[in-house]
Amino acid sequence: MGSRQDPADVLIIGAGTAAGVAAKHLAEAGFKVVCLEQGTWVDPGELPGNKPEYELLGAKDWHPSPNVRGRREDYPVDTTDADLPVWMYNGVGGSSVLYGGIWARPLPSDFRARTLDGVADDWPLSYDELLPYYQAVEREMSVSGLGGNPAYPPGFEPPLPAAPIHRTGRMMAEGMNRLGWHWWPGTNAIPTVNRTHEGMCVRYGICRMGCPEGAKSSTDVTHWRDAVSLGAEVIVRARVARVTLDERGRANGAVYLRDGREHFQAASLVLMAAGGIGTPRLLLMSACDRFPDGLANSSGLVGKRLMLHPYAVSVGVYDDDLENWLGPAGEHIGSMQFYETDASRGFVRGAKWSLLPIAGPLEAVEKWTDKGSLNGEEFWGAGSADRMKSFVRMLQWHVVPEDLPEETNFVSLHPSLTDSDGLPAAKVHYRVSENTNKIIDFHLARSLEAHEAAGAEKTWIAGRNFMTGHNTGTAKMGDDPTTSVVDRFGRTHDVPNLYIIDASVFTTSTGVNPTATICALAKRTATHITSNAREQEVAS
Amino acid sequence: MSVVNFTAELSDTSRTRLAALADVLIPGGSGLPSATEADVAGQWINRVLGASPDLANPVAHVLAIEGAPGEVLEQLRQRDPDVFDGFAFAVGGAYFMNPAVRRALGYPGVAPRRLPAAEGEAEYYLEDDILAPVLDRGPVYRQVPA
Known about the structure:
Chain A is of the alpha/beta class. Chain A is 24% helix and 18% strand. In chain A, the strands form three sheets. In chain A, strands 1, 2, 5, 6, 7, 8 and 16 form a seven-stranded mixed beta sheet that branches. In chain A, strands 4-10-11-12-9-15 form a six-stranded antiparallel beta sheet, with helices on both faces.
């Protein structure tokens, strides 16, 4: 065992999106915060977005799949028994480094799926309870957008002005108006004015590869720098092997590996923030005599109920050059027209749509060549020049279908595959459910109608199940310790000083991008900890 | 997967073969150059393999197959689509990196470049009350029981 660090008040495991929000809040309140992160800080100069090779680098070194990147810090994720790849980024800022920056709150009905639709479970909290935390983190994350969106109750006023919807958004908006369907200018965690730590968006259009301008709100930029200046310590290249308990069953720190040596970090309180795959992996790796099936797993639900948002995409080719490469990316416009349940459609729940730019020609080629593309034409060969000439005349709708929880979709420890430190890899077991497939079918059909109404000369479904970085539900939040892992504040039912603050706690996945809710929940948990510090049980 | 140190070993003969294969995928026309005309098998494939060395494997795989370029690629597409896709990705990546190709396709610059929004641009695209129909329809979310 290597050197024992000075005890922390709060140990955070993983330096991702939620961790940044919590670390800054806790450090501001005077807590001594230590974070163990298996990756490193991102050097903005290394990000590919303003280099001629950007699409090639985005397909390898900066690919959102850890299996494709294959960096030392990327633990393998076996998806041979999964219907789609699993994406994440391991480093300071976590997956916010490579997300698109789309900022989407769920709706009040998302927190009452059982009550309203008879499926899944109600969250143990409501939209209204989360509202002040959404509003707080929208300021911290420099969210830009237009207030007054009738898809939401009053109280959704993005703090920064909306970005232009461009020719792309205008073209589609006119089509949506012809159909009488909802649309709204895009809401993104991408600043439209200069901020303390961020420049304003310069519209590279490559947000999903990381922003070289520092103009996308990833928490390495928005939170971690402040947290460190307030005294928080981030130990990088530190791969946690297990969370430990004291003799009373309180979490008292973590064993981690760094440069081939084993270390121990002691703490009074432990926050898990390793993401919807990493957190259950670590809890399962932390099995002990008291919790032989995995730490905080008396419910048996650690790793279970994995929800992934199997994305789908449709495209249309239009008459005019739409400058569809212009950022932010980020959404230009969004639609919640078919978000709410309508039982006459033959399924429950729904999906949000986002109209996204297309970062470059190689991404455009995928609209023909993706295995899920129904274009029907071979892209390469005779006629390819004409197809290439259509690249800048394309629009794409991304559909984010709500995925309901099922215990047959889960994360487990791999029996043989390991990471670069010899720790068990994650194995994902995941099948797209019948209800989710019906959501996708319906929404893709409607999105093709939207393209046609907007004037597309040709439309097609360009892919489904092609991605998700939305890894949720694997440590369910609920009031009942027998049917959930954490309580309404993210505290594990089994270990009173062990919290989970990432997307693992989602009771349902909702049908929107999760970052807003991840940040709001992390802010709420951090606020709860600072407000109840005197009553908080801690390690001895 | 081992990575071939490819660009250093790529002979003139191999580059000629690569160009012929690439022309099958990208024959040009409609104002766009062919792969050969765009120098795919020269400096641009070097740039591709420098950025993504793993792509040397499918490129080397295809170069090692003898036969008429069109037949080689058609058989590969049917029998080994992963290798075909990797080869096409490398060739396409090289082609699209050529600034003349990017320009002809309508992309500005040799890479994404800074184009901050102009003052009033956001408002411009919302002119003519384009949001009025959305607002006139009112709320579209469900009420939730307290």
